[in-house]
Amino acid sequence: MLRPYTILLLIFLPFCLFAQNPPDKPDAKLTQKLTDALRGFKGNAGVYVLNLKTGKTASINADTLFPTASTVKIPIMIGLFDKIRQGNISYGQEVVYKDSLHYDDGIVGSLKDGAKLPLSEVVMLMETVSDNTGSLWCQALAGGGTAINAWLDANGFSQTRVNSRTPGRQPFQKQYGWGQTTPRELASLLHYIRQGRAVSPDASDRMYRNLCRQYWDGDGLSQLPAEVKVACKNGAVNQSRSEVALVHAPHGDYVYCVMTKNQQDQSWTRDNEGFALLRTVSALLWQHFEPKSTFKPVAGYEKWW
């Protein structure tokens, strides 16, 4: 015999899942444009787009798993803020860098042993310049990948996982690297933060502000007017380039995610096929949602990267 709370769970669970993952309202015209843009890409690519004003979507391989690369730093930040919510640490507290934390020679990895700085600055470096040593430090302070993955699972993000330095995730790390996700789920996670649903409304607001400060703005962001506010995180490893963004466009906000894997082109120049795809999709979406915009990317921008 089912207990009362079990019956209630069975009744309301479908509604909860619907709220988290509403059914698609496909935008056929946009989907065709994206299909054309991805045609001929030498590797695997996936895209998910949601117009937050109309609810219309476009998806290509949107539920396929891809390496997160540095976009994993969004769930790491969420896990850290959840730890802060629990009272274990505070956002403004002073933390002490140790040489044992060193991963690479980014800003945090170049600090001297014993250097002190606010945790908030480490988080800023993780999201803004994508500092790897700082990110692994934040992952550890969040309780590690296991704790972060538990939050993701509890909040309905079943495909997004931290793999690196996470017990039991070694086979997945070998295949996907630091983390794994899908274009739909990563875009939904960014939207979740924007809605104020990640950890708490105030934590979501702080995280969203962090994501609106992006140093690496030479790809998708370069195809948008400088005055348009965008929350964004990108990532890149040899065979994969990714970007997730929520664009505050004049005629309605939209969120999208582009991810690649198994790229033949593993170069690290601006004309890499994956980087070029990020710019192509960003420009395509802007032109689709803002057809009367006269904005054109500044010529010669590539000289600055």
Automatic annotation (TrEMBL):
<dbReference type="InterPro" id="IPR000871">
    <property type="entry name" value="Beta-lactam_class-A"/>
</dbReference>
<protein>
    <submittedName>
        <fullName>Serine hydrolase</fullName>
    </submittedName>
</protein>
<dbReference type="Pfam" id="PF13354">
    <property type="entry name" value="Beta-lactamase2"/>
</dbReference>
<dbReference type="InterPro" id="IPR045155">
    <property type="entry name" value="Beta-lactam_cat"/>
</dbReference>
<dbReference type="GO" id="GO:0046677">
    <property type="term" value="P:response to antibiotic"/>
</dbReference>
<feature type="signal peptide">
    <location>
        <begin position="1"/>
        <end position="19"/>
    </location>
</feature>
<dbReference type="InterPro" id="IPR012338">
    <property type="entry name" value="Beta-lactam/transpept-like"/>
</dbReference>
<dbReference type="GO" id="GO:0008800">
    <property type="term" value="F:beta-lactamase activity"/>
</dbReference>
<dbReference type="GO" id="GO:0030655">
    <property type="term" value="P:beta-lactam antibiotic catabolic process"/>
</dbReference>
<keyword id="KW-0732">Signal</keyword>
<feature type="domain" description="Beta-lactamase class A catalytic">
    <location>
        <begin position="46"/>
        <end position="260"/>
    </location>
</feature>
<keyword id="KW-0378">Hydrolase</keyword>
